[in-house]
Amino acid sequence: MEEQNLSSPVTEFVLLGFTQNAELKRCLFVVFFIVYLTTWLGNFTIITTVITSRRLHTPMYFLLANVAFLDVSDSSVNAPKLLLGLLSQRRTISFSECTFQMFFFHFIAGAMVVVLVVMAADRYIAIYKPLRYLTIMNRGVCMGLVAGAWLGGLAHSAVQIALILQLPFCGPNILDNFYCDIPQVIKLACTDIYMVELLMVSNGGMLVIVMFIILLISYTIIFVKIKTHVTDGKHKALSICGSQITVVCLQFIPCIFIYSRPFRKLPMDKLASIIYTVITPMLNPMIYMLRNSEMKKAIRRLMSRILSSGKKL
Questions:
Q1: Position 51 in a domain
Q2: pLDDT of amino acid 223
Q3: pLDDT at 182 (0 to 100)
Q4: pLDDT at 91
Q5: Is residue 197 part of a domain?
Q6: d(CA 111, CA 147)
Q7: Which of 43, 163, 250, 312 could form a disulfide with 68 if both were Cys (CB 3.0 to 4.6 A apart)?
Q8: According to the model, what pLDDT value does residue 5 have?
């Protein structure tokens, strides 16, 4: 099962996961199960709060709810397979399932990158064009930008998977990870992958680096504007932008580490993968809820309404 005959195509891959120690696997299952539940609870709380609170029916919170939805979707692509692998002895994944996992993972991650860029643009307009902000960032524009983000993620993922599907897989089928991802899968191809690697790094890694630099510059400009020109609501503006740049760093830094270099194995790869795919989707809602006073007030109002309804029943 672990090795395929070199003359036959690969029909499944073997995921090595984190460890073969049964005791450690049980401990990791409990930890990651709690993380996954917290991810759902935190992001679902943000989505529900934004939908039910009229005060949060603004472009910024509309985009924040979309980030929360993307976090839940992103985590749900890989976390269930991780938990299943820790709970059972079955470590294989079919070629088609592996392909779908890579497609949806990069689809959602690509959309997330674009939405984070849109959120930076939203803050830039709010700070530099406050009187025209709601006119510029109207509902139609916000919906169009989010739709564009999903289409961008789809295009990014489609290019990646199209390149993968053109490669022959007829040799080793062991992936030293807990989920299927392009850097590991591409190394198992039975052909020279130099040009494909170059295209992958260009399509993913270099693009992410450029966007990350643009975002850092944009938020630096915004921070300077807030510090020097904003008087009313300065603390709130700084807190909102601070939470957004924290989320950007959590999202982009592991992504750059994994995808912006030639696909060779490094000791930190698994740690970067777990941060990027499991931990970050849990931390994002915590950052927004802890650093955003308006969000915290809205959540408290929502909880009060729920508790009041429960007492009446």
A1: yes
A2: 86
A3: 86
A4: 78
A5: yes
A6: 9
A7: 43
A8: 46
Is 8 part of any domain? no
Amino acid at 268: M
User: Is residue 301 included in any domain, yes or no?
Assistant: yes
Stretches where the chain sits below pLDDT 70 are 1-8, 230-233, 263-264, 310-313
pLDDT confidence of residue 263: 63
Token reading at 124: 């830039």
Structural domains of the chain, count: 1
Residue by residue, DSSP assigns the chain as --B--TTS---EEEE--S---HHHHHHHHHHHHHHHHHHHHHHHHHHHHHHH-GGG-SHHHHHHHHHHHHHHHHHHHHHHHHHHHHHSS--EEEHHHHHHHHHHHHHHHHHHHHHHHHHHHHHHHHHH-TTTHHHHT-HHHHHHHHHHHHHHHHHHHHHHHHHHHTS---SB-EESSSS--HHHHGGG-SS--HHHHHHHIIIIIIHHHHHHHHHHHHHHHHHHHHHHH--TTHHHHHHHHHHHHHHHHHHHHHHHHHHSS-S---TTHHHHHHIIIIIHHHHHHHHHHHH-HHHHHHHHHHHHHHHHHHHH-
Task: Sort strands 12-15 and 174-175 into parallel, antiparallel or unpaired.
Answer: parallel
Domain hosting 125: range is 14-312
| Cα→Cα distances 186→13, 88, 92, 169, 195, Å | 12, 26, 17, 9, 11
Q: What is the CATH number of the domain that holds 160?
A: 1.20.1070.10
pTM metric for this prediction:
0.88
Residue with tokens 């980030």: 67
What pLDDT is stored for residue 1 in this prediction?
Answer: 42
At 4 the pLDDT is 44
